[in-house]
Write a structure and sequence with these properties.
This protein is mainly α. It has helices spanning 10-31, 39-54, 72-79, 81-99, 107-132, 141-174, 182-214, 233-249, 261-267, 288-300, 314-350, and strands at residues 58-60, 65-67. A two-stranded antiparallel ribbon has the order 1-2.
Length: 351
């Protein structure tokens, strides 16, 4: 669902930067109050895992399209909505700057569409209420916990991807992309992202169930079940870290070549035909701001499209997965460290 710069007019892009920036500011302020010593390694490892997961597109049967993990629900369930949102912002910014995945002008919109809904709406509307509910209480504590994780993961991913897909339609409409009739574009975007959301929900549930069995206290709102973890914290983090490296460096090579939900809605598939009938080489909004953003990306993206420049070698994909995961982990850890620094500084000033 990464939007290209050509899909947003500068005014719409500025508005989305403003709302996403406000959410970032609130999240940073909240993170500074977080006293959890586990937050730093969890932010680093889970952010790397989501980055790697986003590299693996899975085919949506019968459509000619594909989808990939978005990750907002996964991160908010493990880190909380604020830290999860900041982690998603780091992922999207690194993807845009270093891999040319998603426009730099459209970064604010991508943060809103892919991070805000999953982390805040998914958490407060579905994850926390379901975890605090008495659903499945007759099944026993552990079994009920598992069922609530599955239910919240699937419903959360479906709802938040629908909201994100609808926001893409709104943003392109406001931007004046006349080739995209509002109703027809909705008719393409929402059903395909419903299917993508269902698959993401199952993937999210699988990861969270592993954490629930290994270290249940790491799950937000779900750690009070009294269930004893089967692994140490270090072992759990190590498994997640190794999974990120395997997915990014190895499984990414098997990613579907089909266009993702947004690309499929806009341009279709060479085998299944076009959808909105747009020319992939000539579409959208042209602006000085978009040209400036593209110029910056050309300078910063050292592995464009997750590959070596001017090379089709699959090694470029593997290197991109490993390097990208490491960059995301490092920057997520820096955010956590910065929060701790400012927290200590404010305490010192108060004394």
């Amino acid at each position: 669902m990464h939007m290209a710069d050509a899909l947003v007019a500068p005014a719409a892009a500025a508005a989305m930067y403003a709302v996403s920036g406000a959410a970032i500011g609130i999240s940073i302020k909240t993170l500074r109050k977080d006293e959890s010593a586990q937050k730093l390694p969890m932010m680093a490892v889970t952010s790397a895992l989501v980055f790697a997961g986003q590299m693996v597109n899975y085919t949506i049967p019968g459509t000619g399209s594909s989808g990939h993990l978005c990750g907002g629900m996964l991160l908010s369930a493990l880190l909380g909505p604020q830290a999860g949102f900041l982690s998603m912002v780091v992922i999207l910014a690194i993807q845009s700057l270093f891999f040319a995945d998603g426009g730099l002008l459209a970064l604010g919109a991508n943060c809103w569409n892919m991070a805000f809904y999953g982390c805040f709406v998914g958490y407060y509307v579905l994850w926390r209420p379901i975890q605090r509910s008495g659903l499945f209480s007759g099944m026993g504590t552990a079994a009920a916990g598992r069922m609530k994780i599955i239910l919240a993961s699937i419903l959360g991913c479906v709802l938040t991807l629908q909201l994100g897909a609808f926001s893409v339609v709104l943003e392109t409409t406001v931007s004046g992309i006349t080739e995209l009739p509002f109703g027809a574009f909705c008719g393409m975007m929402l059903p395909i992202h419903l299917a993508i959301g269902l698959v993401e929900g199952l993937i999210t549930a699988a990861v969270l169930l592993f954490v629930y069995e290994a270290r249940p206290e790491l799950l937000m709102e779900a750690g009070s079940s009294g269930q004893e973890g089967r692994c140490s914290l270090k072992a759990t983090l190590a498994v997640l870290a190794v999974t990120a490296l395997v997915v990014g460096g190895g499984l990414s090579l098997a990613a579907s070549a089909n266009p993702d939900g947004l690309e499929w809605s806009l341009f279709g598939n060479a085998e299944t035909g076009g959808n909105m009938g747009l020319d992939e080489d000539d579409f959208g909004v042209s602006s000085a701001a978009a040209d400036a953003a593209a110029s910056i990306q050309e300078k910063t993206a050292f592995l464009p499209d997750y590959a070596f420049q001017q090379s089709d070698s699959p090694v470029g994909t593997s290197v991109s997965g490993v390097v990208g995961s490491a960059l995301v982990a490092a920057f997520a850890a820096l955010i956590c460290l910065a929060g701790g620094f400012f927290r200590r500084k404010s305490r010192t000033g108060a004394e």
